[in-house]
Write a structure and sequence with these properties.
The protein is of the alpha/beta class. It contains ten helices and 14 strands. The strands form two sheets. Strands 8-9-10-7-11-12-13-14 form an eight-stranded mixed sheet, with helices on one face.
């Protein structure tokens, strides 16, 4: 039996036909030599059947999923194993709960929900139903990220980590958007922190923590936000670990675009610079040691096929095939921890307004 036939197949239902869903779907149907699971796009849920069909046609490829003019029909489809939720985050909780109520596994885009309370409600439902649920923080699953964390925390290539800087900025023309846009409406969770800052915060935790197992060392958080029309257009966060003195400075903004070198990690023996087309998509990092005679070591991401969403999808599939309901790289407690940090940052931001 060939290796291809030995791999199990996970049948996906896609909720939402926006940009993030189009990226995810394209990755699912891209042929890959390194795939560890098979993925089938079984169903598409859209606000209208016409919009859903146009979505599938626009992406092309061999996928011929069922197209529904409602999300509920995807949840109820007996041929769907797992639901990918790619709609605006204000609607994540309800979508997750509906999928879970039908016994579906769930991969939900970041931020998982608007706050910790909503996330806990989803996880409680998943636990009761016995289904797999994970926040789709794809950056954590990329091979380059995994390699970077190995070099920092296990191989200690820059010694003891002291400081980390990370920024995610996009120049957004908010004035041209309607008040109902998810980027402007406070009720939809608009603002840089939930949309962009969650990536800066994630890099801070990845670089300053020793790993998920050390997440009990939740840092002290200091923050400031620039609030305009009820949303944060810029956020700055300082993480301070009193146990070891490590600090992280993490920023997000809608005013300017980040430099391609979006993060810097400083240690006792050197510095690592991380770069990419966006803070969510690392493509290279460079290790510069304090040894003046040593050459810079440059590490590149694997040759690009798609955007990289399939790494988290493979991880999800392998967990489900093994009977697990959580993923070790992005467990429920980590989602709750990140949301709790952002809850505090947002609460302080409102007070500053």
């Amino acid at each position: 039996m060939s290796h291809e036939l030995q791999k199990s197949t996970l049948r996906w239902g896609i909720i939402g036909t926006g940009l993030i869903s189009s990226w995810f779907l394209s990755d699912m149907v891209a042929p890959r030599a390194d795939a560890t699971a098979n993925h089938t796009i079984q169903a598409i849920g859209s606000s209208s059947e016409e919009k859903g069909r146009a979505f599938v046609q626009r992406l092309g490829g061999a996928a011929t999923p069922s197209v529904y003019g409602s999300y509920d029909k995807v949840y109820a489809d007996p041929e769907v194993d797992i639901v990918y939720i790619g709609i605006p985050h204000a609607f994540h909780k309800d979508a997750c709960l509906k999928a879970i109520s039908h016994g579906k596994h769930v991969l939900c885009e970041k931020p998982f929900t608007l706050n910790t309370k909503e996330a806990q409600e989803v996880f409680n439902a998943a636990k009761e139903k016995g289904v797999f649920v994970m926040e789709a923080m794809w950056t954590r699953f990329m091979p380059l990220t995994v390699q970077l964390l190995q070099l920092i925390h296990q191989d200690k290539v820059i010694g003891d980590v002291h400081r980390l800087f990370c920024d995610f900025g996009l120049a957004m023309d908010l004035d041209s958007l309607p008040a109902t846009s998810r980027l402007k409406d406070p009720a939809l969770g608009a603002g840089t922190l939930l949309d962009l800052g969650v990536y800066s915060l994630t890099w801070g935790l990845l670089g300053l923590d020793e790993g998920i197992a050390s997440a009990a060392l939740t840092p002290q958080v200091f923050s400031a936000q620039s609030i305009s029309e009820g949303i944060d257009v810029a956020t700055s966060v300082v993480l301070h670990y009193p146990q070891n003195g490590r600090q992280g400075i993490l920023t997000s903004t809608m005013k300017t675009k980040s430099d391609p070198v979006f993060a810097r990690i400083e240690g006792s023996k050197g510095t690592i610079f991380i770069e990419g087309i966006a803070t969510s998509v690392p493509r290279r990092f460079t290790v510069v040691t304090n040894d003046a005679a040593a050459e810079r070591q440059v590490y590149d991401a694997p040759a690009k096929v798609g955007k990289g969403f399939f790494y988290e999808a493979d991880a999800v599939a392998n967990d489900i095939f093994a009977g697990r309901v959580e993923n070790a790289t992005m467990p429920w407690d980590e989602t709750l921890r990140v949301l709790a940090l952002m809850d505090g940052i947002r609460a302080r931001g409102v007070c500053q307004a």
